Amino acid sequence: MRKFVMLAGLVLIMATESSGADRTIITELNPENPYLGGALHIDCIGNGEWKLPLRSARIEIRNGVDERIVRESMSIDGNTASYEFQIPADQADGSWIAKCELRDRSERVNETIRFTVSAAPDIDPPDVDPPDGGYIDGPIAAHNTITRYDGPATCITCHEQEAGEMLNSLHMQWSGPTPNLTNTNGERLGKAVGGINTFCTYAMSSKGACFSCHVRADGNAPHPPEATDVDCLMCHSDTYQRTFVSDPENTETVTDIYGEEKTYVFGRVDAEGNYTTVPDYAKMPAGTSMVNVARTVHLPTSASCLRCHAKAGGGDWTKRGDMGLNSSHASVNEDVHLSSEGANIGCVNCHSALNHKISGRGIDLRQTEADRPTCQACHQEAPHESSTLNRHAQGQVGCQVCHIREFAKGGATEMSRDWFSPVWNPAFCSGQGGFVGEEIKQSNVKPEYVWFDGTSYVYNIGETIEPDERGVYAMAKAHGSPFDGKSSIVPIKRHSTNIALHDESGTIVPPAIMWMFMTGDFNRAVEEGMKEQGMSGSYRIVEADAEMLITHGVEPASKAPTCVECHDGSGMTPDGTGMLPFGALGYHDIASSVASCTLCHEQKSLQWETMHSSHRADNVSCTSCHSGEPTGFIKPQSQLCGSCHETKPWRQDEGHKKHLEKGYDCARCHTFA
Question: From 3.40.50.720, 2.60.40.1930, 1.10.150.20, 3.90.870.10, which CATH number describes the 2-117 domain?
Answer without folding.
Answer: 2.60.40.1930
